Amino acid sequence: MNIFSFLVVGLIAGWLAGKIMKGGGFGLIGNLIVGVVGAVIGGYVFDFLNISFGGFIGSVAAALVGAILLLYLIRIFKKI
């Protein structure tokens, strides 16, 4: 996946994660950044669990899981 596709997938995942995790977001720009970082995390998580989806939808799914996980962890550490 080239860098442009990676950024688009991350941005979509960040936006979706912000909608799913209501109250846990950081605004549009913050959620988009979380989505890009979450794409990396999701890729590692799916690779570790030997889960693979093909194509664009699979990439968005992995990035979405990573972004939701990252938003959840940030919410936990923000409370501490």
From TrEMBL:
What transmembrane ranges does the database entry give? 28-46, 53-74
Keywords, in A-Z order:
Cell membrane, Membrane, Transmembrane, Transmembrane helix
UniProt-annotated location(s):
Cell membrane
According to the UniProt record, one GO cellular component term is: plasma membrane
Presence of keyword Transmembrane: yes
Superkingdom, natural source: Bacteria
Task: Output the InterPro entries linked to this UniProt entry.
Answer: Transgly_assoc
Protein name in the entry: Uncharacterized membrane protein YeaQ/YmgE, transglycosylase-associated protein family
- Please give the organism: Flexilinea flocculi
